[in-house]
């Protein structure tokens, strides 16, 4: 069995409030009686993309690195250059130039407990919506083709389908059909994992399970949960994370509030 802990959207912003919520999730995972194979964080690790925020993130996440393998992909609040410099030590990631004169997309692949996890950079510099650039799609296609017999989980920040959350749906993944075409060529893909939604959600995409991690910084509210003057999200709900279990062709997910 391969066990992947999945959390998302800590939005570390230099304040103790955001750090305290993230530390609750980190302490839960660092204190597990048993080990998980890896911890996946699907983006919006920081809130404004500054180097100072990434240094805070490195400090807050440090206990995870001491105990577990940690996998990351960026979200729309992340910034590629300081993300790569502070969190990845100046290395990591591939996928070609981003076409805007900035840093290249941060795409990574790791083999974890018999499963290949492919983390795609769906961020668009300066924009809240997501897009998988041509270079990222080519990288994903090649990385999947390189291990056709290994079960694969594809991770990105932006959900590629609407989730019934109007604010999030307006800034989801653009051109999802391009991703669907790549996935259709690789029968070993088990599921797609994402963040951005600030709520645990399960649906399907390209004939595969699509599993969204709950939020660390806040929890998104569905329209019928909101009052007339309410925000789309609440900080009153506790941080939460998911555990994905893969065994003998089956993926099972559990959600834990911490």
Principal-axis shape: globular
Strand content: 25-35%
N- to C-terminal distance: 24 Å
CATH architecture: 4-Layer Sandwich
Assigned CATH class:
Alpha Beta
Oligomer: single chain
Order of helices and strands: EHEHEHEEEHEHEHEEEEEEE
Overall strand count: 15
Going by helix content, strand content and strand pairing, the class is alpha/beta
Number of discrete helical segments: 6
Number of domains: 1
Task: Report low-confidence residues grouped into runs of 5 or more.
Answer: 96-102
Summed over residues and divided by their number, the pLDDT gives a mean of: 94
- CATH topology name, in short, is Purple Acid Phosphatase, chain A, domain 2
* CATH evolutionary superfamily: Metallo-dependent phosphatases
How can the largest sheet be summarized?
A: 6 strands, mixed
Instruction: Using the CA coordinates, give the radius of gyration.
Output: 17 Å
Placed side by side, the strands forming the largest sheet appear as 4-5-7-9-11-10
Helical residues, percent:
25-40%
Structure description:
The protein is an alpha/beta fold. The chain has a single domain, classed as Purple Acid Phosphatase, chain A, domain 2 (4-Layer Sandwich). 26% of the residues lie in helices and 27% in strands. The protein has six helices and 15 strands. The strands form four sheets. Strands 4-5-7-9-11-10 form a six-stranded mixed beta sheet, covered by helices on one side. Strands 3-2-1-14-15 form a five-stranded mixed beta sheet, with no helix packed on it. A two-stranded parallel ribbon has the order 6-8. Strand 14 and strand 15 form a beta hairpin. Helix 1 runs parallel beside helix 2. The two termini are 24 Å apart. The relative contact order is 0.17. About 3% of the residues have low confidence.
